[in-house]
Amino acid sequence: MFHVYVEGVTGKEPDAVRTLSEAMAVRYGLSAAEIYARLSRGRFRVKANVDQATAEEYARDLEAVGARVGIERARANGSSSY
């Protein structure tokens, strides 16, 4: 099983975090303000305990809207490896 994290934005523009927040809000039906707050605090997990194919699909989708993404293998106790 794998966890998918948004680690930041790929854009260098001053409003890149806001742009990504809005794109993720539209795509996933979430609050842009909440996504912005999470991005501002740093890395956050967007999907947990999924198979590798699903994790890679999420990563591609998030990268397409400007997210810098990380995938980590979940450990047997449910947490991720760092």
Compact overview of the structure:
The chain is built from three helices and three strands, in the order βααβαβ. By secondary structure, it is α+β, with helices and mostly antiparallel strands.
- The CA-CA distance between the termini, in Å, is 15 Å
Secondary-structure element pattern, one letter each: EHHEHE
Tell me the strand order in the biggest sheet.
2-1-3
Helix content: 40-55%
Mean pLDDT level: 93
Contiguous helical run count: 3
* Rg, nearest Å: 13 Å
Indicate the proportion of strand residues: 25-35%
List how many beta strands DSSP finds. Answer: 3
Q: What structural class do you assign from the helix and strand content?
A: alpha+beta
Could you name the ranges where pLDDT drops below 50 across 5 or more consecutive residues?
Answer: none
Please give the largest β-sheet: 3 strands, antiparallel
Q: How does the overall form come out from the CA principal axes?
A: elongated
Description:
It is a single chain. Helix 1 packs across helix 2. It is elongated, with a radius of gyration of 13 Å. Helices cover 44% and strands 27% of the residues. It has a three-stranded antiparallel sheet with strand order 2-1-3. It is an alpha+beta fold.
